[in-house]
Amino acid sequence: MKIEQIYTGCLAQGAYYIESEGEVAIIDPLREVNPYLERAEKAGAKIKYIFETHFHADFVSGHVTLSKESGAPIIFGPNANPSFDCIVAEDGQEFPLGNIKIVVLHTPGHTMESTTYLLRDENGKDHAIFSGDTLFLGDVGRPDLAQKAADMTQEQLAGTLYDSLRNKIMPLADDVIVYPAHGAGSACGKNMMKETVDTLGNQKKMNYALRADMTKEEFVKEVTDGLLPPPQYFPLNVKMNKEGYDDIDEVLARGTRSLSPEAFEAAANETGAVVLDVRNQQEFAKGHIPRSIFIGINGGFAPWVGALIGDVKQAILLVAPEGREEEVVTRLSRVGFDNTLGYLEGSFKAWKGASKEYDTVSSVPAAELKKAIESTKTQVFDVRKPSEFEAEHIEDANLAPLDFLNDHLAEFPSEGDFYVHCAGGYRSMIAASILKSRGIHNLIDVQGGMKAIKEAGIPTTDYICPSTIK
């Protein structure tokens, strides 16, 4: 028996390859399916099943394409009702794979079709669970995403999740291995550990939601407390996972068309496409196409695209590092953004070489901010999460979380320079690009973010005035 976790850091997502006696099961595959097909072919094995733990909200799964390419059936748990052919399994149903078995444990609560798959080894012993978004390491799946589809409140869903955990998962042996669908950084939970594999016994000790003496009322309160609004692309990804989508090859062919500066400019003017610049933030600061949006490929790229652009049908034109265009289109497709129209051939240097108009962002070291604070009244805007801001922030700084930046536009001064920072410089440059695209140009980005700010000796505090949190 072979179990391989295929972890994608950008999405904090775990897919799984399970092989026994020449037969393979894939759980929660990513959009690009060739790696699974190639793994099976190299091993001389055949993909027999494609298991989905639920209709994912934070990424588009590769189940439809993988089924088409491999001939393997797609399997969902009870209550699933997709638009394509699949097996809707019953609770407790067993699927033989070589000399092992995969057992369906219906665990609703995160969504009503949410299912955990229990792997029993060749001796019939419970070996591992693939828990999807039902159980994470350190947390459980948020219960607010499926309210509309289930016609239930988040409290009712949380109560259902409590029952699923207590009745289906916690009775399992402590040595059972937990393989979740996500790790730290995913918006599907709020308190996940950085580890991606653990034992159920350790989770019973470490995970607040698995306390043995926890009442349902306590569980509902703690699980629903502090939930931020989900990114607006989540329901659109659910729809694609439920109804189907274009093959990844079609998306790549469409998105990797090279465009000269003239053709790129014409396409932007004619289509209303968002110009998405994915280079390094300091390269963007030194020069970029006016009104383009920066979301760097080397950061939390795909989730930020989903959160900030939102509409998966939005046309996109790319400015990317040369040679990485296909990677960018692939990573966009993972969160459902399939309408990439092409990329700027020769990247930004070709645009500049064609004598096209371009813009810049004023970006300075933290020492410059310190001088400004000491010499004059200076407005500083922190675009980190409220929890980060509450833990520590510059004295008298304003909070404008990047996720909800558009809600704070009226707060930015129209006259006089102001400073923008985050934790390390990535999010603040995204914020700067959005502000400039909205006509707000009197901003200065602080390089290196909070880390550099502390090193520069700028006074900080952990006190927070409730009126500043919005």
Automatic annotation (TrEMBL):
Domain Rhodanese: 269-360, 374-462
SMART domains tied to this protein: Lactamase_B, RHOD
CDD domains with a match to the protein in the record: POD-like_MBL-fold, RHOD
Highest taxon of source: Bacteria
Pfam families: Lactamase_B, Rhodanese
InterPro entries according to UniProt: Metallo-B-lactamas (IPR001279), Mito_Persulfide_Diox (IPR051682), POD-like_MBL-fold (IPR044528), Rhodanese-like_dom (IPR001763), Rhodanese-like_dom_sf (IPR036873), RibonucZ/Hydroxyglut_hydro (IPR036866)
Keywords in alphabetical order: Metal-binding
SUPFAM superfamilies xrefs: Metallo-hydrolase/oxidoreductase (SSF56281), Rhodanese/Cell cycle control phosphatase (SSF52821)
Stated name of the protein: MBL fold metallo-hydrolase
Source species of the chain: Croceivirga thetidis
